[in-house]
Amino acid sequence: MFSLTEAKAQGWRAVAVFDDRPDGLIYLGRSSTQVRAGYAEAYLEIFDEDEREHVQTISMQRWQGAPDAGRWLHHTNLKLPTTTPQKLVRAA
């Protein structure tokens, strides 16, 4: 018989927490480092300016438990990305 529980987290994710709607997935990765490196660009691509006004925070969460019997646990809050001048030039 084998155990379905695992000692390490199976994944990490960044989730936008809105003030007027359900949470929205921004980025999913294998490590916290991978999520930190990719969430800002994904955030700016996924949400338009109006949607970004309603984001209260970005929660970085890690998976704990077996693949079919675990849950997402809040780890930390990430900084809200801002649009940089370089990003605006590329968009134009």
Structural category: alpha+beta
Spans of at least 5 consecutive residues whose pLDDT stays below 50 are none
State the major sheet: 4 strands, antiparallel
What percentage of the residues does DSSP assign to strands (E)?
A: 35-45%
Mean pLDDT: 85
Write structural notes for this entry.
- The protein is of the alpha+beta class.
- The chain has one domain.
- 28% of the residues lie in helices and 38% in strands.
- It contains three helices and four strands.
- It has helices spanning 32-46, 49-52, 85-91; strands at 12-18, 24-29, 55-66, 69-78.
- A four-stranded antiparallel β-sheet has the order 2-1-3-4.
- Strand 3 and strand 4 form a beta hairpin.
Structure characteristics:
single chain, 92 residues, alpha+beta, four-stranded antiparallel beta sheet, 3 helices, 4 strands
How would you briefly describe this protein structure?
This protein is of the alpha+beta class. It is built from 3 helices and 4 strands. The chain has one domain.
Secondary structure layout plus pairing:
Elements: E1 12-18, E2 24-29, H1 32-46, H2 49-52, E3 55-66, E4 69-78, H3 85-91
Antiparallel strand pairs: 1-2, 1-3, 3-4
